[in-house]
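ok so for the tutorial part 2 we go from a plain amino acid sequence to predicted structure tokens. step 1 is just haveing the sequence, like this:
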Amino acid sequence: MKRKFLFCLGALAGTSLATLVLQTELLPHASAAPSETYRQLSLFGDVFEKVRTKYVERPDKAKLIERAINGMLTSLDPHSAYMGPNEFKEMQAETHGEFGGLGVEVTMEEGLIKVMAPIDDTPAARAGILANDIITQIDSEPVQGMTVNQAVDKLRGPVNSSVKLTIQRKEKREPIEVSLTRKIIQIRPVRARAEGDIGYLRITQFNEQTYAGLRAAIAEIATRIGPDKLEGYVIDLRNNPGGLLDQAILVSDAFLTRGEIVSTRGRNDEATQRYAARSKKQDLVGGKPLVVLVNGGSASASEIVAGALQDHQRATVLGTRSFGKGSVQTMIPLSDGGALLLTTARYYTPSGRSIQAKGIEPDQEVLQEIPDELKNEDEARGEAGLPGHLRNSDKNEKGGSSAYVPPDPANDKQLIAAFAYLRGVGQGSAAVRKAARIAQ
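step 2 — the prediction. this is what the tokens look like for a chain of 440 residues:
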């Protein structure tokens, strides 16, 4: 059975992440290679043998092969990669929503290990680690020159064991040392609360628990506020790196009564797929107005949901431009117990838009006020900023946008604007326009 995933480029301390749309399939039989390919493979064998027998020190043959494979894949695009058996198992465990680690999402940027975001209610968040922190040392070992997966391997460890991080923060001249205790990280993908007459739904990622969590949260909010008093819902997808494709489809379907949700198109016919909402008289929220919040950290599955609801005019998308991850990776299990992640297709919104290296443009752009110490550091790089990324066919690419979300909701201009917009929907178009300008 095939299963697809979508994750954001980077890695979690406790599991690996990549902004991916993944499809699991059996390894196909290899076709006959042309003579030139055989010649090149023979050349590789010659080089490998010379290194194995003549290098000044005895090399680790398995590591040589693995690094050669990684070199081949990273030359294709940022999302094609080889996963060893342990990485593959940990990635599968993460989709269940529970894993061991620190709860910090990291990425590689210009040879440095950079924090993308700490996960709520984890050791990293409680220790005060912030987005855009640079991890320079792990247990006093410099991380300069490590790959992101090597760094994550260092961050992982037995539950209740400790690890010391040395962090460089822009506004601090001196490095910061933080000691953390590794814990079981339980991802609670949906958080909800009532804000007066509005339901707030924060989706942090798309794992196996997301749709069930969304249904429960909607039912709880409707009971608490009362269906007759509910003005609408804010769906917060900011800094959501992605997750399981089937969950993204289910979440989109929850707010749609018909129509296409997403399609994929690739070099081969089997890469072409279309996913549609189930036809029904009423959606999960009874047609209540929706606002979807996105920013530069919203990627893959988040962009599929935002794009589907935007194209069907089911929701107003508010915030800043999303990450722009619009390619599909096939996850192919290998004979060593690991897996090959290979880019095989692009995905498209219902109207046929490719968001690859462009992102979802919000219907209403609302910028946050950035603290002085974070100015010029809050920009998410975006897909267009990744070396070797797949080009958009119309060449109209755009860089990343701000991924900053204030920790205090009272200072969150995007959230304030979303609430104001929903409260103005029932009061006429002038009130809606006025509400949309609030917090600008």
